[in-house]
Amino acid sequence: MVKKKIDNRIRILIENGIKSFNRSLVVIVGDKGRDQVVILHHMLSKAQVKARPTVLWCYKKELDFSTHRKKRMKQMRKRQQATGSTGVGGDDDNPFEVFLSSTQIHYTFYSDTPKILGRTFGMCVLQDFEALTPNLLARTVETVEGGGLIVILLQTMRSLKQLYTLTMDVHARYRTETHRQTEPRFNERFILSLSSCEQCLIVDDQLNILPCSSNTSLNIEALPSKTEENSLTLEQIELKKLCYSLKETQPIGNLIECCKTLDQGKVLLKLLDSITDKAFRHTCSITASRGRGKSAALGLAIAGAIAFGYSNIYVTSPAPENLKILFEFILKGFNVLDYQDHIDYDIQYSSNDHKEKNIIQLTIHRPKQHRQVIQYIQPNEPSRLSQCELLIIDEAAAIPLPLVKQLLTGANYLIFLSSTINGYEGTGRSLSLKLLEQLRKQSAVLTTATKTTKTTTNNRTLNELELNEPIRYGINDPIELWLNNLLCLDCCQDPSKFNKVTSSGCPSLESCSLYCISRDTLFSYNESSEKFLRRLMYLFVSSHYKNSPNDLQMLSDAPGHDIYCLLGPIIDSNQLPDILCAIQVCYEGDLSKDIVARQLTHGQRGSGDLIPWTIAQTYQDYTFGKMSGVRIVRLATHPDYQRMGYGTKAIHLLEKYFQGHIVNIDEYNNLESSSSPKADQVEIIDDDDLPLLNEKLHPRRGLPPLLEKLSERRLKHSIDYLGVSYGLSADLLKFWKKNQFLPIYLRQTASELTGEYSCIMLKTIHQSNQAPWLFSYYQDFRRRLISLLGFQFRIFTPGMVLNLIQQAVYPEIKEEFTVSLIEQNFTDYDLRRLESYTRNLVDYHLILDLIPTLAKLFYLNRLPIQLTVVQMALLSGIGLQYKTIEQLENELNLPQSQLLALFNKLIKKIIDLINSVQENELGKTFVNSLDTANMQPLDKSLRQELNEVAATIRIRQSEELDRLMHDQQLTKYAVNGSEEVWKGELKNISDPGVISIPRTLNKRKDIEIESHFDLSKQKSKKKKKKNK
């Protein structure tokens, strides 16, 4: 075996890292780079005076070797028997096999790297460069301790510029049906950034140093060894003084001696103060970058809580693997407090892990003391905290925000919260912007209530702590600086350093202009471009809570994306202007109807094109994908310029640009220039002319200008609509509605990350009367939403509900309220109940079943009445969300009596409307009956008809009188005497008032009257005659 002398600069790089407690980075180019890992690890082990460094080996899918120790030993013994080798350490042994057998290596897939949170390794190996993402890079590099080594393995290539065009695995997520070509700008910036890292060397698979390494690394010199006196910093001296002052205060003094930095000691002291006070409605929040000792401080604080008599302590994190450091420092705290394993406490390990046993419970049972327990729980198990006294939430930024809120809601125990906000976690900003802001408000309310001698039961006090001094590695670690600059991780630490607001005041909206940023220039790693990029990322990070390094790669490599920024008047062209507002947009749509139909019928969706696929699936409208749209991915306004109209101004200018109102006068010239070849921007790589050992990398030259006015830019896309998708909140909904966007989609399941519901809003580029499709979508969305408000959306506030179901973009005509509509929805008994309630004869509970129907009719424009805002909130809250008056009292901040009075007036308006409609309908029935009659002129007048009827009646009466007079049966009632006799008697009246007329007896004629007896006799006679 031929031995080769290794460049001494590699050894000096590793030793300098150990002396300064800084990490080192080595990039190996070549397929045999795996074998050089053994040599680098040997050099690292030899330079350190401690145990062999542990190794974290990350890969995509497969390794070229077996990770099973027993299998490797069996294979090694077979080779030894075949070759006659005597054992391990012989000349014929494979050094790589010896390295695998004698080193503690933790193998992990890139997809499983979240499980290594909070762990520390001495060396990290990253292979499969095409699978590497910014998130994975930050997550793995930050696990390496000071003096450690990071090794990146690359395939064999003739030039590193071949990485400029390397297709990454993540690019498959960026491609869409209309945008297939990706440009790996992030790879170019990554390779160029290596030349600025002072603690980085780029070598080939023979450990030859390449000239493309940084000048500092190429001319590296060994650092002098530090003495014990010179090695102490001011912070370490202050820490020693703190430990000496607390030496007599036990057990605090022993725990403080375990701290490594002054920041950690101060934080631990404040945590122990909260523990001794036993303020169970108190929350301590620890925020810091990676490697600052948050988990260690929490572990020592838990040991102190056990010493102070806490019985039930619960610990939670994304996974048990993340608590390895925390439990390690709990045991360290037990050691300094003279707790002994198996005598004073027992350790319980998890049984679900295949390779490693993680601690999940510690049971303390010292003599003459009560039983104490430290137990791990899942973040989704808040029900187990009924007897909790102290809750530790480690790596809270990696836990979904709704779960963290559940752990804090109604908590009557002390809470310690730690999170990484300037690292790779995507929820870091979510925690700081959402959760901590809510806790600050509650703490402020509690402080105010204490001053005014009022009692509060739901609020908690907040104590925010911060760690700045690193523990895992030294201060100003070159790898940390390189990683922060590459991924813009520290853009929110010191805003004044990146974006200084001009002292001349805010520019007027009329003087602001919208510019398009050239992504080729922005990510070219030029000095001015890097400054502008950091200002841009500062806006995005400070304005949005969902940020991760992967967003930077999407911003640089994703096709169909553009970046626009709103700038004030540019006075000095030699200085970078201040960014007032930045917009990241994505071009979507222009999909074939057949592709959309084929994908959706199989239950599939294409990558990208968020709005077209979502709307096509929601409304089953396959033609929507044919339209072209622009989705606003991010809209960020400078924190000092927020709520001044700059965001609205930027959207207005962007809309005018896509409408074609911003005309490019030199469009023909720009068209010619854009079609010309770009030989000065893209260099053609010839493998024979650029050998790897002679290559030096520099940023590209001849790039287009960084900023381009919209009036100087040719419109490349024909756009039909503007769209936005965001997590629904009251402020954002109000902002987008103010810009005339309409909601057309609301996801029914909340985001696991933030607990918010995704909302899609659209705005047509053309006039509203030319795009009726958007209004039809909105009407269908409103109809669905009204039926769903009683389910998941019941938690929405009344103001948010009113903003969702009302719009002012399209004119709406209320339908006619008819009697048939009343009869379809209400019975006579229902109307009587409503009438009785308006007269205050019954309670409102008697009509609660009718409120949902009334609310649906009103919000579907079928109930033409005018209501106040509070009455509309009452109608939607009770009728659509099924809330009680008590809940609305808290949400609307109005007394219950006032709400019931307004509710009564609301019902009275509805009853008046119903009564008026019924009365009008009843009046129409009478009018209709008169209108439908056959009206003709009379042939005779009324007098003629009366005369004819009178004559007819007289004739009938005279005939009746004659018939009566000639009736013989009435003669017996006739008065005696003739006329002459009566006249004579009247003349000769002797006795006044008495007239006497003698009765004359005439012979009466016999009149036979048949009786029923005679009839029977006659019948018998007839029978006899017949018999004869």
Automatic annotation (TrEMBL):
Gene3D superfamilies, per database record: 3.40.50.11040, 3.40.630.30, P-loop containing nucleotide triphosphate hydrolases
Single GO MF annotation: tRNA binding
GO cellular component: 90S preribosome; nucleolus
Domain TcmA/NAT10 helicase residue range list: 286-490
Binding of acetyl-CoA, residues: 642-648, 738
Keyword terms: Acyltransferase, ATP-binding, Nucleotide-binding, Nucleus, rRNA processing, Transferase, tRNA processing
Residue ranges of every copy of the TmcA/NAT10 N-terminal domain listed in the record: 9-204
Pfam families: GNAT_acetyltr_2 (PF13718), NAT10_TcmA_helicase (PF05127), TmcA_N (PF08351), tRNA_bind_2 (PF13725)
Swiss-Prot/TrEMBL catalytic activity: a cytidine in tRNA + acetyl-CoA + ATP + H2O = an N(4)-acetylcytidine in tRNA + ADP + phosphate + CoA + H(+); a cytidine in 18S rRNA + acetyl-CoA + ATP + H2O = an N(4)-acetylcytidine in 18S rRNA + ADP + phosphate + CoA + H(+)
Residue intervals of the N-acetyltransferase domain: 535-765
Primary location class: nucleus
Gene Ontology BP, a term: rRNA acetylation involved in maturation of SSU-rRNA
EC assignment: 2.3.1.-
Cited CDD domains: NAT_SF
Domain Possible tRNA binding: 773-983
Subcellular location: Nucleus, Nucleolus
Binding of ATP, residues: 291-300, 472
Domain of life: Eukaryota
Record function comment: RNA cytidine acetyltransferase with specificity toward both 18S rRNA and tRNAs. Catalyzes the formation of N(4)-acetylcytidine (ac4C) in 18S rRNA. Required for early nucleolar cleavages of precursor rRNA at sites A0, A1 and A2 during 18S rRNA synthesis. Catalyzes the formation of ac4C in serine and leucine tRNAs. Requires a tRNA-binding adapter protein for full tRNA acetyltransferase activity but not for 18S rRNA acetylation.
Matching PANTHER family: N-ACETYLTRANSFERASE 10, RNA CYTIDINE ACETYLTRANSFERASE
Family, per entry: Belongs to the RNA cytidine acetyltransferase family. NAT10 subfamily.
Full protein name: RNA cytidine acetyltransferase
Organism, scientific name: Rotaria sordida
Species classification: Eukaryota, Metazoa, Spiralia, Gnathifera, Rotifera
